[in-house]
Every structure is written in C-alpha cells, then in structure tokens.
Amino acid sequence: MPDQFLFSLTIAGIYLLAGSVKGVFGIGLPTTSITLMTLFIAPLEAIAINLLPMFVTNGYQFYKAENHRRTLITYWPFALVLLFFLSIFSVVTAKLGNNVIGLLIAFSVISFAITNLFFMKLSIKAEHDRIWQFSLGGVAGILGGLTSLWGVPITIYLIIKQVKPRQFIDASGFLIFIGCIPLAIGYSTTGLLSPDILFPALAGTATGIIGFKVGEIFRPMLAPDLFQKLLLWLFLIMGLRMLYTSL
Length: 247
What we know:
- By secondary structure, this protein is mainly α.
- It has helices at 2-25, 29-37, 43-63, 68-89, 93-118, 129-147, 151-161, 165-189, 198-218, 224-246.
- It has one domain (2-246).
- The model has no long low-confidence stretch (mean pLDDT 87).
C-alpha cells in the first residue's frame, strides 16, 4: 500500500507539471507526462495511465472553447479520419511490446520537439485544407493508436494552417478529446487497461486539472516563446535518451 501511495503521489506530481504546460500552451500534457513516466515505468503502463487525465483535461479544454459549432464544422474531416485509424491501431499496441512502443514514443517526442523548434512556416491554401486534414488525420490516428501521442500531426497541421492561438487551443482540445474514446475501447479490448492503474490515473487527472488552471492563470504573464523553447529542448533531450535506452 505505501508503494502504491508513493507511486500515485509521483504520478500526481508529474501531471501537475504536465497540466501546467497544457494550461499555458494548450498542448503538451501527454508528451510531458509520458516522457517523464517512462523514466521509471514501462511505456505500455505509461500510456495506459495517461488515457484518463488526457480525456478529462482535453474535455475541459474543449468545454471552454469559444465556438463549439465552428470547431466541429471546421475540423470534422481531420476528426473523422483520426477516429477511423485510432480504432484500428489502438488494438495493436499491446502486441508490440514495451521496446517497440518505447521507440515509437521516443520518435513522437523527438518529432514534437523538432516540429515546434524548427518547422518552417508553411501555409495551407483554402482549397487544399481538406487534403491536409485527411492526410495528417490519418497519420495522427496511426501514431495515436500506437502511442497515445497524436499531438504531433495536430500541431503540424495547426501551425501550417496558421490559426490564431485561441483557435489552436480549441481545435487541439477537440481533436485530442474525441480521440480518447476509440483509444479507450481499443486498449480495453486488449487488456491494456487494468484496475492497477485506476488510482494513479485518478491522481493524475485531479492534479492535471489543477495544473491546467494554474497554467491558464500564468499564460498571459509568462514569456511564452522563451518558456516554450526551453521546454522543447528538454523534450528533445529526453526523447533522444528514450530512443537510446529503447535500442
């Protein structure tokens, strides 16, 4: 019992930090939490614990969106393809094993960091938007089904679409929130979700929401560009470490 309590307390601390990151930027909770959790637990256990905090915090983020209807109408192609591929690939995760999942998570974290640090500012023409949504929605579904990290393709799409910060937060919250549903079904059918993760997941959910609220408060006060760059360099270093240990 003390070990379980200490473990849940550690997870709670991780999600307090991860929620704060998400509160500031609108993204980064899964990347932060899974990257830190895989320092001391298996990747498969980390992505299982992450599901509930990710679902609740992004549901809350989408609940606070300025215009739900506009978000749904604008991003339904991305959401549709995302849900389809998440449903297929989420049932494969448990069969791949911790080493393969560790490699995929490392790739996702490194890609996330590089995308945000060095990605050139491209632009999407209005007539090509749906093609980009279908394409990156598929990539997000495959990557998300295997690692529960589908924020990288979402980030790439929203960056090159050059949306406003408020729209970025609303769209990313919506696309991550709805993706948790097929992911939960897939992970449940393969036995990835077990009663052992319930208390750590609940602890992470509670502190994730608290951290999110704290991040929202500090969002206008921080120098976001500097903070984001420091955080992304940290992600890059940790992702490379994870890649090294998984090989």
